[in-house]
User: Fold this.
Amino acid sequence: MTHVARELASQPDCWRRAAGMAGGLAGQLPASGERIAVVGCGTSYFMAQAYAALREGSGQGETDAFAASEFPAGRRYDRIVALSRSGTTTEVLGLLAQAKGTRRTVIIGDPDSPMATMADDTVVLDFADERSVVQTRFATSALTLLRAQLGLHTDAVVEDAQVALAEPLPTGLVECTQFTFLGRGWSVGLANEGALKMREAALSWSEAYPAMEYRHGPISISTRSTATWMLGDAPAGLSDEVHATGARWVAGGLDPLAELVRVQRLALAIAQARGLDPDRPRHLTRSVILSTA
Assistant:
């Protein structure tokens, strides 16, 4: 069994632990009313997008999400929250170094990483750290922690994750040649992450869009070899429009975070069918560390 397969399957237990931590982190995580920015790279950036939409949507404060390399240097926040599994990503380290006048909170997997020493508040999810290059459980556990701190996590989410791991994948998906993931609100970030998993682990052509934007051009790529996967509730009539293109429609009946687990499983299944090693995806390393010379 690959590292990513084991780590993927451990998510329900990791989510329980992460949610259980939330109540003991008062002051270390953003308080209601704070104006914050959430940053990350790759998968962590997409989790930042989901958290930002959840926090602002629940009325707990203005929340922006940025790729660390695109943070607007002149903008002021009460706090910057950085997500990083390794704690070594060059762009995030650089941003934290430049933001000394702003409270900095980091959520990391490795307590001995450089990022831990640069923060005002450090939250360690070492139980969710991973050996695989492809992220699964760390990212979803970090989002679960933040979701629980907002009061938006329930045991039903973990139960849905168990269903996502146990149920067979929809038939015919492994044979598809193109995948489109759709989201609404906070699940747009999860759709972006689902598409990234398909590219990283399975080398598949994949895209992601807000569900209402899919009609504005992207639907034109849909054919009989396409799967369109909705994470969360679909807009009225969209499934019929996708069916009319000949594409497969996958309705996201589970909690969107649990639905992402099903996407992770699909990426792994396609990788295995194609003889790929999902633990060592092409051109990727566990952390992107750039030369500053």
